[in-house]
Specification:
The complex is a heterotrimer of chains A (113), B (145) and C (835). Chain A has 4 helices and no strands. With 113 residues, chain A is mostly helical. In chain A, α1 packs antiparallel against α2 and α2 packs antiparallel against α3. The radius of gyration of chain A is 19 Å and the shape is elongated. The N and C termini of chain A lie far apart (53 Å). The mean pLDDT of chain A is 84. Chain B has one domain. In chain B, strands 1-2 form a two-stranded antiparallel ribbon. Chain B is globular, with a radius of gyration of 18 Å. Chain C has 835 residues and is mainly α. Chain C has a domain of 281 residues. Helices cover 70% and strands 2% of the residues of chain C. Chain C is elongated. Classes of the chains: A mainly alpha (113), B mainly alpha (145), C mainly alpha (835). Chains in contact: A-B, A-C, B-C. At the A-C interface, α1, α2 and α3 of A face α28, α29, α30, α31 and α33 of C.
């Protein structure tokens, strides 16, 4: 299972990197969203998958999955939502001001000396 | 969401969403309170509530929503943060490190013996912040022209 | 514990670690100028009618009397230490340490400091100058310098050391509207901070050998240091610090440019105290390093050459302060070389009279003498500048008649500097020459062969010293008077301005006649702290300085210096041409300027090459570097063998789900329009949520589901407001470069995951949470308990971050500085970014 998920993580990261490197601002945002999915899975996977029951105390159960990575990932999910929302609005405002979402057109024409 | 010249017939959506809204909200409050013992908690509860609000927003429009629920979501965010911070600070008065929680069993009318926990206050802060933030984001984008 | 009497009880009560946490009187004395500094601007603003200098003067006067109280302690061979715990876990404590050497410097710093402050009161006009700044910098320097010489901990010393560089920088740039001031300030900063950082490296190396930052521990363990393979590196790094600070060749070039500072600063920092910090360091570190021949030779050779080069260059200067600057360089070199020769004393087996100790005695004695005569000469130069409006010796002349007192000071100072009797300079110069001639009697370190160069260079340097000393007062005060060409009508300086130089000149004469006043009180304790091993062996350091030694080689050398010097001075016009032989490009200053210009250009070129302005380029750097580092370390640490044991099983439906997620993610890459991409992103998100369900993470699954729903709503909402953008299709080309980077990062991350699965070197800390979730937090849902209880701080900050994100979004949309029409908005924004 872990190997399979690791490969999924690799593919997700690959797609994320390719999207982030593209010119369209919107594709970049989609890329960051994919990135966070990959990262969440990575944190969970490295801790070991399916090592026990869901981390809710039940009498008689001794083996639980690691709760700590789950807590970390839960935090990360919410934060990445905030970041994605922020990016989206940034893109939206940029579009309003510049009428483009092409990163290459946004580059300043002169270098800063 | 917006008064278009071409009116869309969304009576079914509107009627259904009012009912569903209450179901989701009640569910989310349940999730919030259950959080300490079973899956749920401030984050999930808050997100669920905001999802319900988003549903209303989609069915009606933002003006209607702000008339029905005149809530300042930024104020809600700030209140949530303040509550979370205050629960963290209270332990300092008992000479404990910041964010130390306390709990005790109380015999409450109607509910019988229940465990009360200061962590729920902290979680309430989280709950309010999550709703506040999500709705601030959605609302500002929705209102901007 | 003499100084600590007042606070002694307090320190005992509150002793933490090895020292107290309260300031002892000694620490208070070190920090007093710094503590006084904040009040200076208020005094300057509030008490306009009184010159701020009078308030400042109190500080050094109090301190010099306080430190004078230590003289009986150190001359009895005792030391005083006081410790404040600062960073005990790092072995960094503020230990103040008074022995003969540090006391000598402390007295110089505070004594000359008092005279300089007094002088500055008359030199700097209280109505025209921003004295608030000036005295703050000066006090800061005073504290820093005291800290350097009184700290036992090398890190603390280093801190104060850099503080002296900073205050020197600020004081050189005091008249910052002048371009030369800024240039000089920058130069001194660059060179001394370069040295300081090298020294820090040396300190860290020494600490790694000895295990302590304390200088006393290093001295005690000098044997360990000597055997270390890094001995030489540490020594050279420490010496770089000392050489840059003490303006030794080839780092001396900053000192002449530092003369742009107000003259009291030049007299104080750049001749009497700060530049001697390097000498202090060499003297202080001598017990650690002086066993090595490299130490002796490096210091003696660099010092001797600096002495010659400084005096040689002083002769061609036309600015009074320029002459003095190069002369300071030369004199510092002289003292440096003496400290180097002094190390020979350890190897000399000469029965009971160790002749090389005389070198160290001469070094200490000359250090004091130099402070007196150079201080008075700088003040003289300041007076001339102040009263005539120029320091150019080509314009000056014949001032003797109008400025008799200043002239007398100049003559006394110059003759002492030239090494003529009956002044104190003669005594120490004789000892210097004696030490250099003693190399003939040594039979180690090749001193008896190439060592012969030492007296020759010393002789040549002395000749040029003689020439510029004579120039100094003849060109200024004698010869033809050209008063009409001077910017001001010259007259004698006000009495207050003369007090300090007169005191110094009296010292020059007084110490010349009664040198032994200092012998047992200051010089002997200082010399003894340079030779702890000899003192421990019971060898006696005898300090007895007198005029007549009989017809010794050094006396013949002095006579030779006077004869040859007079001849050359007389025939000066005939040989001055040699100075123009060296083109500017090849001089050290040329090299320095060239390096600055070159590095500036190189930095710009480098920057222009990688700062393309495209986010894509920056991201590629980051990704490639990340992958490169990861892959390299996988290879380097032999981590590429993976073992997969105890892996979880896969259900068939999980294969299906995985395939869906992968296909959806890949499909996004080929989507031309945006709406389908969003929907595919949603598919990935919901797929991940389902994975969370399978992994036994119900909280995560719930959160992910709701978040995904809200996110998709958000994306659609934004599209609703960006109608054009959602419909517009951009032509997409498959970019091979991007694809390669993408695959590289993907593979790296997969390998990272494999590696993490293979190498679990540390056990998880989660056991704690699982065991205590009910007992400590009375909860059953571990994830939630971790969030709100065990790791509540994380969550608190997380919601703060969320709040900030929401606020950011709100401000981005609601608060616009300008409301533009859509058409020209783009152009205007472009212009804004350009600014």
């Amino acid at each position: 299972m872990e190997i399979f998920v690791s490969i999924i993580i690799g593919v997700l990261t690959m797609c994320a990197v390719y999207l982030v490197l593209s010119r369209s601002l919107l594709r970049i945002i989609i890329g960051t969203a994919l990135f966070s999915h990959a990262a969440h899975l990575l944190v969970l996977t490295t801790a070991g998958l399916k090592t026990g029951a869901a981390p809710v105390l039940v009498d008689g159960v001794t083996e639980y999955t690691d709760p700590l990575p789950q807590a970390l990932v839960l935090t990360a999910i919410v934060i990445s939502f905030g970041v994605t929302a922020f990016f989206l609005v940034l893109a939206y405002r940029t579009y309003q001001e510049l009428s483009t979402d092409n990163m290459e057109e946004m580059k300043g024409t002169e270098s800063y000396d | 969401m917006k008064q278009n010249s071409k009116r869309v017939n969304d009576v079914i959506l509107q009627t259904a969403s009012i009912i569903i809204f209450f179901i989701i909200v009640i569910f989310s409050i349940n999730l919030f309170f259950a959080g300490h013992y079973s899956p749920g908690g401030g984050f999930i509860g808050g997100l669920m509530t905001s999802a319900a609000l988003v549903l209303l927003l989609l069915a009606f429009d933002s003006n209607t929503l702000s008339k029905v629920l005149p809530i300042d979501y930024r104020l809600m965010t700030a209140t949530g943060l303040l509550i979370a911070l205050a629960t963290g600070l209270h332990s300092l008065f008992f000479d404990r490190p910041f964010l130390t929680h306390a709990y005790g069993k109380f015999d409450l009318p109607l509910l019988g013996e229940q465990t009360l926990h200061t962590a729920i206050a902290f979680d309430l802060g989280v709950y309010l912040v999550v709703i506040g933030v999500t709705m601030t984001i959605i609302q500002t984008i929705g209102e901007s022209e | 514990m003499k100084s600590g009497d007042l606070t002694f009880d307090l320190i005992i009560c509150t002793t933490l670690y090895e020292g107290g946490i309260f300031l002892s009187v000694l620490h208070f004395a070190i920090l007093l100028p710094l503590l006084a500094a904040p009040f200076i601007p208020f005094l300057f603003k509030g008490m306009k009618q009184i010159h701020t200098g009078w308030f400042v003067l109190v500080v050094p006067v109090v301190l010099v009397s306080y430190f004078a109280g230590f003289i009986p302690v150190t001359s009895a061979g005792d030391v005083v230490t006081e410790t404040i715990a600062w960073m005990p876990s790092l072995g960094i404590n503020f230990t103040a340490y008074v022995d003969g050497l540090s006391l000598l410097f402390a007295l110089l710093i505070t004594g000359i400091g008092a005279l300089v402050v007094l002088y500055s009161i008359y030199y700097l006009d209280k109505d025209k100058e921003s004295l608030g700044h000036f005295y703050v910098y000066l006090l800061m320097f005073m504290s820093a310098m005291l800290g350097v010489v009184l700290s036992d901990n090398m890190i603390v010393m280093y801190m104060f050391w850099e503080l002296t560089s900073i205050s020197s920088f600020l004081l050189i740039g005091y008249w910052y509207e002048k371009e030369r001031s800024r240039y000089g300030a920058q130069k001194s900063m660059l060179l001394t901070v370069f040295g300081g950082l090298s020294m820090l490296g040396g300190i860290v190396l020494l600490e790694s050998m000895v295990g302590s930052y304390s200088i006393r521990d290093m001295v005690a363990n000098s044997g360990v240091i000597a055997e270390s393979p890094f001995f030489l590196v540490a020594m050279i790094l420490i010496l770089l610090g000392a050489f840059t600070k003490s303006a030794q060749f080839p780092f001396h070039i900053w000192l002449p440019d530092a003369m742009e500072a107000p003259t009291p600063v030049s007299a104080y920092l750049h001749s009497a105290t700060m530049v001697k910090a390097g000498l202090y360091l060499v003297a202080r570190m001598s017990p650690v390093f002086q066993e090595s021949p490299v130490w002796l030779w490096t210091i003696a050779a660099v010092g001797m050459f600096t002495m010659f080069w400084g005096s040689f260059n002083a002769v061609k200067q036309t600015d009074l302060k320029g002459i003095l600057a190069f002369s300071t360089v030369s004199q510092l070199g002289l003292i440096m070389s003496l400290l180097g020769l002094g190390a020979a004393a350890l190897h000399y087996d000469g029965i009971d009279d160790n002749i090389f100790i005389v070198a160290t005695i001469a070094a200490i004695f000359h250090l004091i003498n130099h402070a007196t005569f150079k201080g008075s000469l700088f003040m003289m130069a300041g007076i001339v500048d102040h009263e005539t409006g120029t320091r150019d010796i080509r314009k000056l002349g014949g001032l003797m008649t109008v400025m008799p007192i200043t002239f007398t000071i100049a003559v006394i100072g110059s003759l002492s500097m030239a090494g003529l009797p009956p002044f104190n300079g003669f005594l120490s110069k004789e000892m210097f020459l004696k030490a250099t001639t003693k190399v003939f009697s040594a039979d180690f370190f090749a001193l008896e062969t190439i060592g012969i160069l030492l007296p020759v260079v010393a002789f040549l340097g002395s000749v040029f010293t003689f020439i510029y000393s004579i120039m100094l007062f003849t060109r200024t005060f004698m010869g033809e008077a050209k008063f009409d060409q001077l910017p001001k009508k010259p007259h004698e300086a006000p009495i207050g301005m003369l007090i300090s130089p007169v005191i110094l000149a009296l010292l020059v004469v007084g110490l010349g006649f009664f040198p032994n006043v200092l012998s047992n009180t200051l010089i002997k304790p200082a010399v003894e702290s340079i030779y702890p091993t000899l003192v421990a062996q019971g060898q006696n350091v005898k300090v007895d300085i007198y005029f007549w030694h009989g017809l010794t080689p050094e006396l013949y050398m002095t006579i030779g210096v006077i004869l040859l010097g007079s001849l050359l001075f007389w025939q000066m016009n005939k040989w001055m041409g040699i100075y123009n032989r060296i083109p500017h490009r090849l001089t050290l200053n040329g090299v320095y300027d060239g390096t600055l210009v070159w590095s500036n250009k190189a930095a710009y070129r480098f920057k222009d090459n990688y700062m393309t302005g495209f986010i894509r380029s920056y991201l590629i750097y980051i990704f490639v570097f990340l992958s490169g580092m990861m892959l390299f370390s996988i290879w380097w640490f032999d981590m590429y063998q993976f073992s997969f044991e105890n892996m979880a099983e896969i259900a068939p439906y999980e294969y299906v789900l995985g395939a869906v997620v992968i296909l959806a993610a890949l499909a996004i890459l080929f989507m031309k329009s945006r709406l389908p991409s969003i929907i595919l992103l949603g598919v990935v998100g919901y797929g991940v949520a389902l994975f969370f369900v399978f992994f036994g993470a119900p909280d995560l699954a719930l959160t992910q589901l709701v978040i995904e729903t809200v996110s998709v709503a958000l994306f659609l909402l934004v599209f609703y407001h960006m109608p054009d953008i959602s419909k517009k299709e951009t032509r997409m080309r498959f970019k091979v470069g991007n694809a390669i980077v993408a695959v590289l990062v993907g593979v790296t991350v997969t390998l990272l995951s494999f590696m993490a699965l293979t190498h679990k070197s540390l056990s998880s800390i989660s056991e704690y949470h699982i065991e205590n979730v009910y007992d400590l937090a009375a909860g059953k849902n571990m994830v939630n308990v971790i969030l709100v209880d065990f790791r509540g701080f994380d969550t608190l900050f997380e919601i703060v971050v969320l709040g900030i994100a929401a606020l950011g979004i709100y401000t981005m949309i609601k608060f616009r500085t300008t409301r533009r029409t859509k058409g020209d908005g783009a152009n205007e924004a472009k212009q804004q970014t350009r600014q």
